[in-house]
Amino acid sequence: MHGIGIVLAVLLALAIIVIGALYLVSPRATASGFGLPLPEDGPNIAWWLRLKGVRDLVSGLLVLALMAWSGLRPVGLILFVYSLIPIGDMLMILAAKGSTKRAFGVHGVTASLMILAAFLLTWDA
Known about the structure:
Layout: H1 2-25, H2 27-31, H3 45-69, H4 72-82, H5 84-95, H6 100-122
């Protein structure tokens, strides 16, 4: 069971690193898949979106760092705590009447996979 959790954790970490990098390189195009329309256009919108990219990239790197220098339980714990991010994203998109498909299909599925990986990494089978 731990093996599946490790694979899931690595895939989730790599996915959020890629998403973070995409926000840094092409912020507007990447944001279009989030589930909410972009805020009103202005000269600093891309820079605000890049802030999300930095945070995503660092979140993924933290998971990989914990995997390299820590045990499975800390990785599972951080994934469980980090699952609150896509849960919050999903709830905000739904509250704002954004894309339900993206809210559940992207953010809800991501949160579910993170919780599953966290459970598998912390479960003593």
